[in-house]
Amino acid sequence: MEVRFVLNRTEVVLNVRPDEYLAETLRNQGVLSVHIGCNESNCGTCTVLINGKPSMSCSVLTAQVYGKTVTTVEDIQEEANKIADYFSDEGADQCGFCLVGFALVVHALALEYPNPTDEEIKNYLVGNLCRCSGYHAQMEAVKKYLAEVKKHAKK
Ligand code: FES
Ligand code: FES
Q1: Relative to the CA of 93, which ligand 2 atom is closest?
Q2: For the chain, which terminal residue's Cβ has fewer other Cβ atoms within 10 angstroms, N or C?
Q3: pTM over the 0.70 mark
Q4: Domains in the chain, start-ordered, CATH in brackets?
Q5: Residue pLDDT, tens place only, 97-143
Q6: What spacing in Å lies between the alpha carbon of 45 and ligand 2's midpoint?
């Protein structure tokens, strides 16, 4: 079947199977930042933004994104690097497997909630598993990144 959507600001028209999931489609398109970990909506390594909202691409049928926008980390590379630096500064370096998902989620959080509460931050991060570096350090990194985003938004 034919599916048409905007991938990282470029319209694409693809032929996919009706039962094909977005993670597979994206990887077939060479978008290798989308990692498939658990393949059952539990880990967040396959996170992409669909119309700006974090979504697990392993559990979204490609047909469901018809007419929507899909953003992967390739489109927010500069921001993702900044976010990675904040994690690193807090001693919460993320591995290449989970960082992509975290970067997209934190980016979306910054756009949706200019002043999030701790609870809102936790709710946003809840789908992205990795507590290797300790939960507290991740929270601190996210808060410092958001403070920086806010500072720049005021200018
Ligand atoms: S691979 Fe999609 S949530 Fe784990
Ligand atoms: S899974 Fe990536 S740092 Fe823990």
Answers
A1: 3
A2: C
A3: yes
A4: 2-74 (3.10.20.30), 75-154 (1.10.150.120)
A5: 899 999 999 999 999 998 899 999 988 888 888 867 667 888 999 99
A6: 10
